[in-house]
């Protein structure tokens, strides 16, 4: 029996022309281990994507999201990804990383390069390809 794709809600959080990304843990049981990606995660039973996003952002970075706007849904054989966008309204130093190895604000140029150096991991790490595409798609719509 084939597994169904997972369903997740993810946030494109932006501040001063930069995007907040998480360096995912190096766990072989997750998608894109050790890659930079968007914050968010799985929907719990009975949860809407909006509820899941709010819960995940509190769990992952102690951030209460406001004014999240639905951007797009991306579907592939691995996942259905509900993508929302919102401004990051606090300094990145105020966020408390509760999941992942690192977090950083990346410029559009960093996103286009497809890799970013993590000082905490002391290495250059790739962006998850779907996450890179989502941000690049979003950036074409933002003036």
Number of continuous helical runs: 3
For this structure, what is the CATH class? Alpha Beta
The tally of domains stands at 1
Shape assignment: globular
Radius of gyration from the CA trace? 14 Å
Q: Report low-confidence residues grouped into runs of 5 or more.
A: none
Question: How many distinct beta strands?
Answer: 9
What percent of residues are in strands?
Answer: 35-45%
Which class do the helix and strand fractions yield? Answer: alpha+beta
- Integer average pLDDT: 94
CATH topology: Nucleoside Triphosphate Pyrophosphohydrolase
Give a description of the structure.
- The protein is α+β, with helices and mostly antiparallel strands and 143 residues long.
- The protein has one domain (6-139): Nucleoside Triphosphate Pyrophosphohydrolase (Alpha-Beta Complex), CATH 3.90.79.10.
- 21% of the residues lie in helices and 36% in strands.
- It has 3 helices and 9 strands.
- It has helices spanning 49-61, 108-113, 129-139; strands spanning 6-15, 18-23, 36-37, 39-42, 69-75, 79-87, 102-107, 115-118, 123-126.
- The strands form 2 sheets. Strands 1, 2, 3, 4, 5, 6 and 7 form a 7-stranded mixed sheet that branches. Strands 8-9 form a two-stranded antiparallel sheet.
- The radius of gyration is 14 Å and the shape is globular.
- Residues 1-129 form the Nudix hydrolase domain.
- Belongs to the Nudix hydrolase family.
- GO terms for molecular function: hydrolase activity.
- Keywords: Hydrolase.
- Pfam families: NUDIX (PF00293).
């Amino acid at each position: 029996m084939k597994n169904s794709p997972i369903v997740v809600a993810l946030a494109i959080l932006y501040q001063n022309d930069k995007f907040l990304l998480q360096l995912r843990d190096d766990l072989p049981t997750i998608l894109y281990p050790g890659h930079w990606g968007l914050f968010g995660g799985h929907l719990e039973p009975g949860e809407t994507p909006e509820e899941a996003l709010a819960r995940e952002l509190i769990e992952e970075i102690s951030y209460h999201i406001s004014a999240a706007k639905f951007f797009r849904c991306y579907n592939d054989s691995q996942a259905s990804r509900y993508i929302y966008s919102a401004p990051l309204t606090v300094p990145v130093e105020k966020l408390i990383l509760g999941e992942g190895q690192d977090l950083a604000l990346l410029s559009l140029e960093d996103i286009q390069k497809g890799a970013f150096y993590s000082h905490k991991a002391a290495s250059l790490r790739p962006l998850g390809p779907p996450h890179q595409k989502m941000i690049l798609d979003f950036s074409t719509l933002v003036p």
